[in-house]
Predict the structure.
Amino acid sequence: MPHRTIRARRLALAPAGVLSLALVATACGGSGGGTSAAPKDFTYLSVTENTTTRTALTTLSTSACKAENDALPLKVETIPQAQLDQKLQLLAGQDALPGMFAAGNAPALTKQLAKGGKVADIELELERLGVLDQLEPAAVSTIKALYGGKLMALPYEYNIEGIFYNKKLFQEDGIAVPGTWDELLAAADKLNAKGIQPFSASGAQGWPLTRLISGYLYRSLGPDALDLVDAGTARLTDPEYVKAAEEVAALGKKGYFGKGVGSIDYDTAMNQFLTGKSGMFYMGSWALANIADPKQNKIGTENVGFMPFPAVKGGKGSIDQYPSNIGLAVAFGSKTFDDKTGAWVGCIAENFGSTALKDHGTITGFKVNTPVKDSSEVAGTVRKTISGSKQNVLWFEALFSTKATTLSNTSAPGLVNGSVSPQKFMETVQAALGSQ
Amino acid sequence: MAIDTLPKTTGTGRGRPKQPPLRAARKAGGRLWLRLAVALLLVIEVYPLIWMFLTSLKSNGDYLDNSTWSLPTTWEWGNYTEAWTTGNIGLYVKNSLLAVVPALALILLLGTAAGFALQIMVWKGRGLTLLVFLAGMMIPPQMILLPLFTLYFQTGLSGTLWPLILTYTGTGLPLTVFMMATYYRTVPRELLEAATVAGAGILRAFWTISLPVVRNALLTVGLVQFFFIWNDLLIALTFTNSQDLRTIQVGLLNFTGDFGATQYGPLFAAICINVFGTLLIYLFLNQKVMKGLTSGAVKG
Amino acid sequence: MHRVLGDRRAILILLGPALLVYTLIMLVPMVWSLGYSFTKGNSIEGFTGSGLDNFTRLLDDPAVHEALWFTLKYAVIVTAGQVVAGYLLALLYVFFLKKASALVRTLVFFPVILPTVAVGLLFQKLFQVAPQPGPVNSLLNAIGLESIDFFGNAGSAFWVLIIMDIWRSMGFYAVLLFAGLMDIPDEVLESARLDGASGPRLIRHIVLPLSLPVLLSSLIFSVNGTLKVFDSVVALTNGGPGTGTTPLTLYMFQSSFTYSEYGYGSTIALLLTVVCLLVSLAVYRVSRRDNTES
């Protein structure tokens, strides 16, 4: 036994030597990156999951932005979204962020990158290029709300969220479009009584459930409900915040989300709604693409309606404040932002809006310079809502740390299936907020 | 390690008449319950294979709407074309092979040599060195990612398949060294000494005498390591920063879309292409391994 | 006579390359990462020294306790399950199927080569409750029981994970242990049989003791794998519901790369390494003792 101890000690000493060696190695290697050189191409690190932006950019590179592309060729790299945060950290650590990149899954990561001076201030650059007016004001305000008042990303997408509902089912049951939370509950109850699942939601994703919490909060406490939490003047564990979680948990308790909501994935939830198995579906305007696809949509586009999140009686919020987002934000590396990159950005600002809408039916935060016809009635409603919206709100996790975001999404199914109490849910998320 | 006693086959097992233990038991009605158990076992093992194949031929609506074991309502053979192009399978298989084959060769060569040096050769500190290798088995691979990323980036290896080859080799070595050392424990030193007395150097003896003796062990270890690194996702994701370097496992992630949407049919088609490909390799190697194991063509 | 086997140049040539690669790829990064345990921050904002903060936090962090408990529970059950199921299969191959075992062996080995992504999806479907009840729930319904939302709470999700991982790897251990069983000399079995041992008694008193070394090494191997479980959890439950099925590896990965707390992640990794080391040393000592006895 004593013999063994000596061995163990010797074993412990060996790494110490290796450590100093490693430190020397890094010290010497520090200058090897060569990141200050001008970029040879316009690299765009996209997430694998998003195809629209990169396809539209590729289209631009051969048409409107051909000259810019010749000067600095577009090069698209992709990474699965689940791996994005890790990759950005690794690249940022080496000062090797690409020219343009999908910014982390939570805005918090981008803010962190900005704090380290690694993200270009797009507002400044756009102004310099004289194209700042090419961005929709609503989109600009959404981005600024997300990133502490700074324009750190381009709105390659611009979405609003609300509740899609099945008009036919509503008509059959004589349900009017609910304007308040109580009416929504009554409508759900009616559907449920007829054996129709009132809501479909993906618990596997988590966020479709927490969106209901924030929706309730924005209506009951007003559009700054979550800013207050961010500022630390309110806590998620305050009774008026827990109330929102209780309301959503109650929906789950009544079985309004159907069975096994925690394992319902995104496609299944979408499919349940589009095959008429559920009456309502909280989703973003990007779902219009699925609604327009007759292979997926079995209830017909004419039977899909869109309503804002209902009001809460006595609440401070108003129903025309739509939750909005810019999809997965795309930011620019500050180290590689040179004149040629600037030329690209200018060209994108002027042309991306029309290209995306025309070729992909995607609504962006850029001005559309050529008019495009709406594909369906509901698409028209949504587009008009977007252009007419004055004040928009964010979503539950928008201002959260990544840890709180993860915990919120993964705990949401527990909230609606009853295994996590509303109080406990809010405590978990608040604790994660506090720890960072 | 796990096959501690395996090379002993050399002395005892070979050419044995297939003896019938439990003969009495077999006579007694053939043990119906055991047969049933085997049948059940086969169902449990084979069903997923069939399920995967059937799913690969379903449309997304079919997959989501109908019960999971139903037949496809329409047979979507197009999923395979889709899988081949979206999954970029041709390129990814090539990358996988380019990363896995050299890594496997390095693991086996370096690991066997080290195992030999640690078990057969006589020198001070070999016990400690073996322990140092053993410690490598305890290191969670997630832990070495950040330093390695820095290392590869600073040395300019990023953007090639070298980070994969090197990382696979490094992470595969501890187990291989340990297993090979254990195998060599059963190879008599006298065998090698006799050879060196006859005039061959020890390096030569390692190559010509000891390698054939541990041939089966090499195949087994190689097979184990092959499946480890072929199915690796974590390392491949971390160190490949361009599509041109993607491996097949990373390619499987290409079937998920925005907000969590997934094309299940093509995904399973890609999985099937991957699995049946590997299955062929396995069947081929398996036959060799088993033949080696049972024929015991090794000199004792 | 040992001079040939003590040839330093030969040792260097044989051992050098492996040691070099291993040191560069595993040891240096590990020690380097351990250095981060004394820092806070991440590669974006840079690292600053934080003394022993991470360690005190580790001791108090309920998420670590939960993850450690989960990891240990999982490792013990799956290791036992893998080795026992593998051993039973190996016995089946050797004593019951004999020559016919090749096909069964191959089929049972098959899950080992499946990509984890596929296995995860498969088990999600097998145990799903909605939109259609999966095969397992259909079976429950058929015998008059209510469907269970297996992934809805941590307890049942844990068992699905256990079943999945045993299913996945038992064929692998079966082949390893099969090789060990093949090495038991026939003469030993014959003479035992002549002494009147048969069936379970033969296995308990002759076969089991003789295959103990193989079993023990399978155990070390298995426990090291299960303590570091990552892929299958990510594929099946991604740590959920909540953090109910989060092992140390996943918590460490999330801390380091998702939550941008690299130093803390390294500290968790250190804890895991120590756990692995202790468990392996324990098993290793037992197996060494056994070897010297036999």
Observations:
- Chain C touches chain A at residues 23, 27-28, 30-32, 34-35, 42-46, 124, 128-131, 147, 149-154, 238-243, 254, 257-262 (CB under 8 Å).
